[in-house]
Amino acid sequence: MLSFLQFSPPAFIGLCALAGLLVGSFLNVVIHRLPKMMERDWRAQCAELQGAEPPIMPRYNLVLPPSACPHCERRIGVLENIPLVSYLVLRGKCKGCGARISPRYPLVEAASALLAAAVAWHFGFGTAALAALPFVWALIALTVIDYETRLLPDAITLPLLWLGLLVNLFSVYADTRSAVIGAAMGYLALWSVYWLFKLATGKEGMGYGDFKLLAAIGAWLGWQALPLVILLSALVGIVAGLFLIIARRQGRHVPIPFGPCLAGAGMVALFWGPMLTQGYLAFIQP
User: Contact 24/141 with Cβ under 8 angstroms?
Assistant: First the structure.
């Protein structure tokens, strides 16, 4: 089977795309439930600090309770939970109450499958492709969570950072030294910007989750990719901010999540980082 996948790129790409659909369905669970799990933990911790009894709440994690419609609380059956297919068959509505299902669900599943196929096509069969899959899937989850809640959970960013360092023990995307320096520089770069902005304005310009995400990207791609990632994410952030101010008439003081910008830049650097960096250096050299 491994030999077949190695010498049949279409089969490997198709298998990764199928895996992406299945993982995308799970990512939707993570995106929906992880922030709620964090909120429950915070409430329990606050009660403990105040010397009160933690509130008694039913078990809630990534497995329990089973998935149900948030409107009518009807349990979602297996045949209603097939990635992409079920959404199309149900025409984006709950089978029980007819309430609209958020298009975020099929979009996450499609993005997970398409990016997995892109990884398989770009890297081919091997360690680089297999390691890149969890990297892009984690970035998808972080992008949507930060966009919806302004949170970048440690439960994703920290394992992603350590996994990047472990992967690069074998110099998959960068040598180990570059990966370690990348993790440190990624964190310190945004940490420094955070404190400079806070000292200058008295306000917080970003959250600690952004530091950890850039550190994770540095751990995966090495310190050499960080200038490109920071530049691309800053450009995307500026464009997104101007769009929200102009198109939505959103005040300039309304916070804009920076995690999606970092995640998008990290994906670009994963696929084309060395090529873009070399092109930039060739352009600025006399």
Answer: no
